[in-house]
């Protein structure tokens, strides 16, 4: 099952934007073994991808933590994910 998580950061100016991306990256570093970052530095949205088997509950747990964390929720504009079977 392949999974993609995208996080769109808020930011009104370049300095605030880069600061918010760093906050997101620092938070998601904990989950690097589950969803490695594949987007380039300072590019919005942040894209995390795993082509191996990932339990959908794990990605939903990460999203829940992102939404409930007081430190990170205020810098996120939008979260999107997809997890689907891709074997034939």
Please tell me about this protein's structure:
This protein is an alpha+beta fold. It has a single domain, classed as Alpha-Beta Plaits (2-Layer Sandwich), CATH 3.30.70. The protein is built from two helices and three strands; from the N terminus they run E-H-E-H-E. The protein is globular. The model has no long low-confidence stretch (mean pLDDT 87).
Attribute tags:
Alpha-Beta Plaits, alpha+beta, 25% strand, 3 strands, 88 residues
Compact description:
The chain is α+β, with helices and mostly antiparallel strands and 88 residues long. The chain has helices at 14-28, 56-68; strands at 2-9, 46-50, 76-84.
How are the secondary structure elements laid out?
Elements: E1 2-9, H1 14-28, E2 46-50, H2 56-68, E3 76-84
Antiparallel strand pairs: 1-2, 1-3
């Amino acid at each position: 099952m392949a999974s993609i998580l995208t996080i769109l950061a808020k930011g009104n100016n370049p300095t605030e934007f880069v600061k918010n991306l760093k906050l997101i990256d620092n938070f998601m570093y904990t989950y690097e073994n589950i969803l490695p970052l594949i987007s380039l530095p300072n590019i919005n949205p942040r894209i995390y991808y795993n082509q191996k088997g990932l339990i959908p509950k794990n990605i939903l747990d990460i999203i829940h933590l992102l939404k409930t964390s007081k430190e990170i929720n205020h810098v996120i504009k939008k979260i999107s994910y997809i997890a689907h079977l891709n074997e034939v």
